[in-house]
Amino acid sequence: GMFMAGDGYKTVSDWQFNISKHGLSELRIPLVVYALGWNVFPYDKTGLTSFAIGHIKETYKTASLFSVRNLGSHIELQNRGIPSVRCIPDPGYFCIPSDIKLPGIYRDTYCVGICWPGDRPELRTQGTVDTKTQIAKFCHQINEFLFLKSNSKVVYIPHVAKYDLDPEIIQTFQEELGDKFYNVAKELPFLYPEKLEYVSVIAGIYKQMDVAIGMRGHGCMIPYGLGVPVVAYGEHNKVKFFAGDTGYSKHFQDINQ
């Protein structure tokens, strides 16, 4: 998801590839741009600057391989004068799951996996609806869905601990869902802060879900790649692009509608 401004920091390129144009021209080894995604938030009025787009064009010219991870990103770049970009599926589709026992989860437990982003709520929502209200509405729908399930859990699978484990978010889910709420970070604390070596464990958790609801790109791609039914939820381009590429558009729900 590197096609966005620096995540809390300034870059010399105005996007997340922090290298100058001169630095690009000095490269003497092949440059591979592999399966990147258009990650501009829908309510970010700044977007990508013209300088950033110019730098991406120079990167395109320099790269031995320049590829994006979905058709939506391809179209976004094409509309900005960057043609003939290859589409290569994100590696998240191909995670190999490891066997992991979830404490308190049994064979007859109906599991709904949730990947809820805690970062930048002001760029994700239209208007002034606060995160707590959004979670409450979301949980109301989940409770209705699980009403006839005698044994069910809503399994909260954090993606980025420093954002997704916000105490207010966790507390709101707990209040709204009660004993249905299952926090992976609490049950398996060794997984966080997240580490590359535990990707297979996260995949193993997703594999045990009966359905996954993803508001992050990888919260959709990982379970989809494992054959788990997915609801793409939220507002973000990368979630919409996932739904379009996989034929899941009818399973996309915009959080602002």
Largest sheet descriptor: 6 strands, parallel
Largest sheet, spatial ordering of strands: 6-5-4-7-8-9
Overall shape: it is globular
Radius of gyration: 19 Å
Give the uncertain stretches in residue-range form. none
How is this structure best described in words?
By secondary structure, this protein is α/β, with parallel strands linked by helices. The protein is 36% helix and 14% strand. The chain has eleven helices and nine strands. A six-stranded parallel sheet has the order 6-5-4-7-8-9. A three-stranded parallel sheet has the order 1-2-3. The two termini are 24 Å apart. 35% of the residues are buried. The mean pLDDT is 90.
What's the structural blueprint in terms of helices and strands?
Elements: H1 21-26, E1 32-36, H2 50-62, E2 65-68, H3 71-78, E3 86-87, E4 110-115, H4 121-124, H5 131-145, E5 152-156, H6 161-164, H7 167-177, E6 181-183, H8 184-187, H9 199-207, E7 211-214, H10 217-225, E8 230-234, H11 237-246, E9 252-254
Parallel strand pairs: 1-2, 2-3, 4-5, 4-7, 5-6, 7-8, 8-9
Question: Would you kindly provide a brief summary of this structure?
Answer:
The protein has 257 residues and is an alpha/beta fold. It has helices spanning 21-26, 50-62, 71-78, 121-124, 131-145, 161-164, 167-177, 184-187, 199-207, 217-225, 237-246, and strands at 32-36, 65-68, 86-87, 110-115, 152-156, 181-183, 211-214, 230-234, 252-254. The radius of gyration is 19 Å and the shape is globular.
